[in-house]
Structures are given as C-alpha cells and as structure tokens.
Amino acid sequence: MPTEHEIRARNAQFASKARAGKNPVNPSRKEKLAKQAPVGLWALGLILFVVVGGVVFEIVRLVFL
C-alpha cells in the first residue's frame, strides 16, 4: 500500500501535469498497441511459418526418403 506521502506526491504530480496542459495519465498498454502497426507481427509470423515449415518438411523428407 502506498503511504499518504506517496499518494499526495502523485496527486501533486497529476495536478501539475494537468495545469501544464500535458496528458496527466500514461497511456495503457492496450492504447499503445492500438496505435502500433501490426505489420511487424505479421512479418514475424510469416518468417516463423516459413522457417518452421521448412524444418518440418526437411525432417519428413529425411525420414521417408
């Protein structure tokens, strides 16, 4: 549990940011991910699919041929 001093310090920090016109609240993880382009994730998935598929194909080819 935060102490009363920590709560007052956070409240003061929040108020000073709000007075300065800045966003007083840090964006959540969900908001950050919503802004991020998913192209990197698709590219990583495609690369993993090709690599894992190639390894599996080679193992199957070695076993059956």
TrEMBL record:
One of its GO terms (cellular component) is endoplasmic reticulum membrane. Keywords: Endoplasmic reticulum, Membrane, Transmembrane, Transmembrane helix. It is a single-pass membrane protein. The chain crosses the membrane at residues 39-64. It comes from the Eukaryota. It is found in: Membrane; Endoplasmic reticulum membrane. Belongs to the RAMP4 family. This is Stress-associated endoplasmic reticulum protein. It comes from Hericium alpestre. The lineage of its organism: Eukaryota, Fungi, Dikarya, Basidiomycota, Agaricomycotina.
